[in-house]
Target: Thymidylate kinase
Amino acid sequence: MTKGLFITLEGGEGVGKSTQLALLERALQARGLDILVTREPGGSPVAEDLRNLLLFGQHSFSRRSEILTHFAARFDHVDQVIEPALAAGKLVVCDRFTDSTLAYQAYGRAEGEVGTLSLINNLQKQLGRQPDMTFLLEVSRDTARRRLAARGKPTDRYEKSDEDFHIRVAEGFRTIAEQNKNRVIVLSTEHMPAEKVNAVIVEHILSRLP
Ligand SMILES: Nc1ncnc2c1ncn2[C@@H]1O[C@H](COP(=O)(O)OP(=O)(O)OP(=O)(O)O)[C@@H](O)[C@H]1O
Ligand SMILES: Cc1cn([C@H]2C[C@H](O)[C@@H](COP(=O)(O)O)O2)c(=O)[nH]c1=O
Model:
């Protein structure tokens, strides 16, 4: 039985998820909460190996094999890391989860094709773990691109995709938020300093705790 709370951060590249994760860890630990911060793809040793393949592998995936590889990583992460932490009563905060597979693979790659959406939704049902709360961070593509260029990390498979792909991903996230209003909180953070965004997220999380 779950005792903890499972929170995810979602959005396109460069919207500030990793920054928020680090700030959240500090803010929630300072309030004496037992928090586990993790990410996808990744978060367990096997899933981190699969992350390398997904982001930097030499060869291109078929549509279905890409989805299954994201879910192979996710099943391992959930079974070995997330479920045990939740059972121990921890607050688990994860950078990306199944909403990213829907946004990137179903809306970005497959342009919302019904068969792809249904494959992902079936895998999600088998997985049996859904976030309790999701924060969808949004900035304009210009801002995200500027931030990514300034950050100077190696460019991965997804960041290399064309502009139309990223537009479909952003629209996909919007659709997911519309369909899951009870779970997804949309934060438009274009002109907000990271500390202000963090204060808003912390307030939402604290309001959910007993
Ligand atoms: N609110 C903000 N205002 C200005 N700059 C920000 C803000 N939040 C994050 N940044 C900067 O934007 C860049 C991208 O942020 P970050 O790495 O947190 O994004 P991300 O969503 O995790 O990206 P990715 O999905 O590619 O890992 C970083 O250099 C970070 O310092
Ligand atoms: C979980 C997940 C992720 N992706 C993509 C989205 C990003 O471009 C990368 C991860 O990089 P980040 O720097 O950690 O944000 O992977 C995806 O396409 N599908 C997924 O399910």
